[in-house]
Specification:
alpha/beta; single chain; three-stranded parallel beta sheet; 16% strand; globular; 11 strands; 295 residues; six-stranded parallel beta sheet; binds NADP nicotinamide-adenine-dinucleotide phosphate
């Protein structure tokens, strides 16, 4: 029987633990505070930002959304980053990406205080992940690692193939799984669009993690019998039978692959809910570190 790994279930467990940590902080007079800077009016970003704010409030955290117009200048945005860097009530903040084209994303990320960089995009935090001494882990890969650990899937000595080499998913995922210790200790291969003979490589995976943004790209013939399959992709495809006329599908051809896999994440309902959950976890960690509850 194929096991379905559901982000809702795994994140519910983590939220319970976070509530206890937040209570502990509040008993010491500290309310964890997360701010999100949203520049412009990209509809997908608006939805993400709203969900983040709602989750903060549900957990009893302080939530601040800084809305800036689409024609915000680089200087205005950098000033806002500096203001949040210096605000003691804000323990972590993120700048919702993508930014409007005229703004320099890299300069903005570099300006965030690494201690408040709960997205874990600052080069110093990226480097700390690579050397295995992180303050924070990037949310989506951290969520995937938690799904594996909390579903009792052993990773030690297993061959993990990560398809996709983005800075937010593929690369940090590979960097995390190659570390020494629980929930890692894996043998890792990274594949991408220039990889030759991709199906031969994906068929070697004990755990196959796919983050490419191509609907139903991974088919059953690319998967080893009994593999664990983690589908990060979120692709909107047309579906006239759906009330909205479209629906979300992953990078994996779920219907065909599910019987071959020993465990698999569906889309939607798989990795998706883990990303906000791990952002909340990072924000609580930032508050614990800032207030000396943990080192
Ligand atoms: N559930 C969540 O919370 C969550 C979070 C983040 C992302 N996502 C989703 O995950 C997907 C990937 O996003 P991303 O930001 O990580 O990736 P991205 O920046 O769009 O990069 C895609 C990666 O896939 C590789 N790729 C593209 N076509 C390929 C092919 N035919 N064969 C092998 N590799 C191929 C690209 O290779 P090259 O580098 O060679 O171009 C690139 O490394 C998207 O659907 C995104 O919406 C979901």
């Amino acid at each position: 029987m194929t096991k379905l790994i559901l982000g809702k279930d795994v994140s519910a467990e983590i939220y319970e633990e976070l509530r206890a940590r937040i209570e502990n902080l509040k008993s010491k007079g500290v309310t964890p505070g997360l701010a999100v800077i949203l520049v412009g009016d990209d509809p997908a970003s608006q939805v993400y930002v709203r969900k983040k704010g709602e989750m903060c409030e549900e957990l009893g955290m302080k939530s601040v959304t800084v809305r800036m117009p689409a024609d915000t200048t680089q200087e205005q945005l950098m000033d806002k980053v500096e203001e949040l860097n210096n605000d003691p009530a804000i323990h972590g903040f993120i700048v919702q990406l993508p930014l409007p084209k005229h703004l320099d994303e890299e300069a903005v990320i570099n300006a965030i205080d690494p201690k408040k960089d709960v997205d874990c995009f600052h080069p110093s935090n990226v480097g700390r992940v690579l050397i295995g001494n992180p303050d924070f882990l990037p949310a989506t890969p951290a969520g995937i690692q938690q799904m594996l650990v909390r579903s009792g899937i052993s990773t030690a000595g297993k061959h993990i193939v990560v398809v996709g080499r983005s800075n937010i998913v593929g690369k940090p995922m590979a960097a995390m799984m190659v570390q020494k210790g629980a929930g890692a200790d894996s043998t890792v291969t990274i594949a991408h669009s220039r990889t030759q003979n991709l199906p031969e490589i994906t068929r070697l995976a004990d755990i196959l993690i796919v983050a490419i943004g191509k609907p139903r790209f991974v088919t059953a013939d690319m998967v080893k019998e009994g593999a664990v399959v983690i589908d990060v992709g979120t692709n909107r495809v047309e579906d006239p039978t759906h009330p909205k006329g479209s629906r979300l599908v992953g990078d994996v051809d779920f219907e065909n692959v599910k019987d071959k896999a020993s465990a698999i994440t569906p889309v939607p309902g798989g990795v998706g809910p883990m990303t906000i959950c791990m952002l909340m976890a990072n924000s609580v960690t930032a508050a614990e570190k800032a207030s000396g509850v943990i080192q």
